[in-house]
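Standup notes
- DV: blocked on the single-chain target, sequence here:
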Amino acid sequence: MSPYILETEGLTKEFRGFVAVKDVSLRVRDGTIHALIGPNGAGKTTCFNLLTHFLTPTRGRIRFKGRDITGSRPAGIARLGLVRSFQISAVFPHLTVLENVRLALQRARGHSFDFWRSERVLGELNGRALELLDAVGLAQLAGAIAVELPYGRKRALEIATTLALDPEMMLLDEPTAGMAHEDVDRISALVKRVAANRTVLMVEHNLKVVENLSDTITVLARGEILAEGDYAAVSKNPDVIQAYMGAGDA
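- DV (later): unblocked, structure below
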């Protein structure tokens, strides 16, 4: 079997003549943390949207666990075990933290909207929901209303609801964006912890986070793969340095 859980071949996306992603052949090794980085406008988010089919590729193929998923619906891709965090994020701001994770667990079991079920039946999911909250450091906030959480804790809740689907591979789009230093450290530790038994592909601008977490890094520039390797290799690559300096990024 291939050591790669996710592979793309010639992945391309054009928007009325503008090529946002061009001939990207990406290989993500099973059980690793793989970072997708690059200056603003490099095509990182477009690439994520292609992988989960929120955008349809103009050309190219996508394989997950050896299966061609090109053209599959986003919900079908999630059921196969490839989940992007916002697909099941905490979209019920006025429910409690526990209720949000419990609803995600219902979704995992194929019962998305069982609001009419008895409290006893729904309560049977509480044990697993609390385990997930404990895993992301939110067990003490189980009764808090989601909308009242600080930003960093909301992102932790989003990861908990993602974990409720028990994905084999998680796609995290800038998990530490907009966070204070304390929250960056907390979420970084969380990503490392949840990656212990699954694969993570993340887009991340914080290069310190990328350095500390990533096994492999793919650098995009102008929609194409510019370099790939570990942090030591890509950070010294003159093409990568030029791409970031030319874009005005630190």
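- Follow-up: The radius of gyration is 19 Å.
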